[in-house]
Amino acid sequence: MELKKYELGEILDVTRGASLSGEFYATEGEYIRLTCGNFDYQNNCFKENKSKDNLYYTGDFRSEFLMEKGDIITPLTEQAIGLLGSTAIIPESSKYIQSQDVAKIICKKDLLDKDFAFYLISSTLVKQQLSAAAQQTKIRHTSPDKIKDCTVWIPELEEQKRISKLLRSLDRKIELNRAINQNLEAMAKQLYDYWFVQFDFPNEEGKPYKSSGEVMVYNERLGREIPQGWSTMPISEILDKYPTTKRYETKEYLSCGKYPIIDQGDSYIVGFTNEIDHLLTRHPAVLFGDHSTKVKFLDFDFARGADGTQILYSSSKAVSQYYLYLAVSALQIPNPGYSRHFKYLKELPIIIPDLKIANKFKNIVKPLFEEWTKNIFCNIELTKQRNELLPLLMNGQVSVNSDLSAY
Fold it and tell me: Is the pTM of this model over 0.85?
């Protein structure tokens, strides 16, 4: 496969977004302003930014800054290590406004395939050049000109399309698994709400308990009625201790390995280790982000990253790990400040259901979470395959037509 040398500016254009005035930031509206929080840089895809509540913009802006579905964007500021060079694709037209921290990539169609450009910008070759040229301040920055100055070697257009088709097929499988997992979790949460919030679990006759007029008793701690025979207690009283283990530093994370390292970030699996001495092998477990109130479900051997995550285990037979995860996910945790969320969590009440109902619920949701976990690890393997193929395809070591079948 023949590769031709270009500077990126010869095959694409890079435009900076609008400077949006803070006085027009709002908690609701028609348009959402893009930020660096819209980049899932660990999975190299778009994500909805849930870190802020004032993401809407109600002021005037030029129409050229309103993004269309399929537009490629890349960040201009590195608010997290590894962010520069990541790419994302806009999922919906006429909804997102390009802000000044976000660049739009516009391909020259006769030289560069759009899907190929998505992977080219996020390749190690370009990321290393952007990192080396980044302005070193408290938060590192790049610019449209620095992106366009990057040197790349690319194949002819038809080969680009074959490469991007292969890589996109892997990403589609990853996206499908994510969508399946969102549905699985939504099903579990809906059932939890129906049974343990609305209290319409099946009674002895298989009818909805509360709606059928079964006995409800007022609970002072909750300030509401709960089914007769049920109780409440502070979460601290049902939590079991977990063993003290080493917390891995960022420099110890491997990009792939046998065992995930977890922390309280959005993606929560932040790296891997091959060591077995410091693993937590008791699972299912529930991860609670002491700094961010993130709640994650873990049903695999794992190690802990260097942050304030708490691992929750239930000591109550009536509170399975599945129930604990869904109950904690549904709680409204106060925001008392850094490193105090866990203290407040422990003081909040949890409903202790009838053991028979609790076991029935566990048996229903357990297969959902087992499928959810299987998809997580399927995506880890697919991501590994994509990341291994990406540099080989980009530098010509592997050809889609021939060498790939042998690879």
Answer: no
